[in-house]
Amino acid sequence: MSESRLEDPRFKFLLVLSILFVLITALTWSPPLPRLTTEVRLGFHTTDLYGQAPMSPHLIYPSKFTGAGVRVAVVDSGIDYLHPDLRDNIECMISFTVFQNGHPLIWCPVINGTLAQAEVYEYIVFGSTGQYAWRDENGHGTHVAGIIAGKGIASGGKYRGIAPDVRLWVVKVFDRYGETSEETLVNALKYLVQFDIDIVNLSLGANNASQSLKYAIDMLVNSGKIVVAAAGNNGQTPLTVTYPARYDNVIAVGAVMRDGKPAPFSSMGGPGMAKPDIAAFGVAVVSTFPTYSVYLSPKKIDNYYGVLSGTSMACAVASGILALWVEVVGKQEVRDPNFIRAHSIYMNPFGVKTYSAGWGLLLPP
Predict the structure, then answer these.
(1) Of 171, 206, 282, 362, which is most buried, counting CB atoms within 10 Å of its CB?
(2) Are 80 and 3 found together in one domain?
């Protein structure tokens, strides 16, 4: 660049305007954290029903309790927050795909306005960033949230979640394709430490160990939260449970068929890896699904519900059951390491922990 051009007042003026534009843009909408798309994936899910008839989870685990007052964070791909079965449960939505002034974009209906207003605002955000803040573009997060908290309104109560009165905290970390970076996930988990949340549902997994992920999980547990994670998608092969389900302070959930047999896709522990901790219904699970077009294409019941199988689904079932227990006996008792053993039914005649189903099926109160 020539010195004469640098000294040109018009060029200097344009240069200053350009710098100001960049600064204003950076302060208004920060880009999402860097993503390495192969690091962390949503927990295993498949459209294969393995010969099972689709069934709503509340029929497998009937209870007179509803999880009233219990807060459950679903760290996933977002949610269809206007879905009739879910909209009344949502207490807060937090985005780790869209940021404002360097902070995750949050919408809490009691503070920010209605969910219909959130949708209007989200379209404005999309126009600025090209990203949806809370909308579920994958389908996985809506299905998981419905297993935990769906009210069954769109089906007249036929397809209901385990704990239909819990308060949902929706934490979006995954993109349309069910991928995110470890850094994004770790930052989301650390962020949740400050809130009064009872249960954190992690229907996700990574094959490799990570000190930063372990540190974030430890922070969550030490802050009093119950962390529940999917065992993984590696099939009935020993020593294949994924992270963070492998960690001792996380409740790892394997999937079983309705006859109690381990699902073919559910990861196993083995010598030196006493995981999973429990098992739950995870095959041909009916739950809420976005009413608009998304990446996943499950077997649809109608415009409001879909059917998926996987440890993701089993993890959500377990989170719902634990929410019922928190309602009944309180979080401190449920956090006791011996609690799930005392309230599970063994899946073998010997009364010992197995590498496919842990202590067995966690029973509702």
Answers:
(1) 282
(2) no
Domain that holds residue 327: 34-362
Q: How far is CA 317 from CA 305, 342, 361, in A?
A: 16, 18, 11
164, 97, 210, 232: CA torsion to nearest 10: 40
Looking at the structure, tell me whether residues 14 and 106 fall in a common domain.
no
Same domain, 126 and 165: yes
Looking at the annotation, which residues are catalytic? 76, 140, 312
198 and 325 share one domain = yes
User: How large is the angle between the packed helices 311-329 and 140-149, nearest 10 degrees?
Assistant: 30
CATH number at residue 65: 3.40.50.200
Q: Is the pTM of this model over 0.85?
A: yes
- Please give the full DSSP string across 240-300, using - where no structure is assigned: -PPBTTTSTTSEEEEEE-TTSPBPTT----BTTB----EEEE-SSEEEE--SS--S---EE
State the total domains in the chain: 2
CA–CA gap between residue 76 and residue 65 (Å, rounded): 25
Please provide the DSSP assignment of 187-234 as one string.
HHHHHHTTS--SEEEE-EEBSS--HHHHHHHHHHHHTT-EEEEE--SS
Q: What is the pLDDT of residues 142-200, one digit of tens each?
A: 999 999 999 999 999 999 999 999 999 999 999 999 999 999 999 999 999 999 999 99
Looking at the structure, tell me whether residues 99 and 183 fall in a common domain: yes
Question: For residue 225, which phi and psi values (nearest 5 degrees)?
Answer: -95, 150
Q: Do residues 325 and 235 share a domain?
A: yes
d(CA 288, CA 52): 18
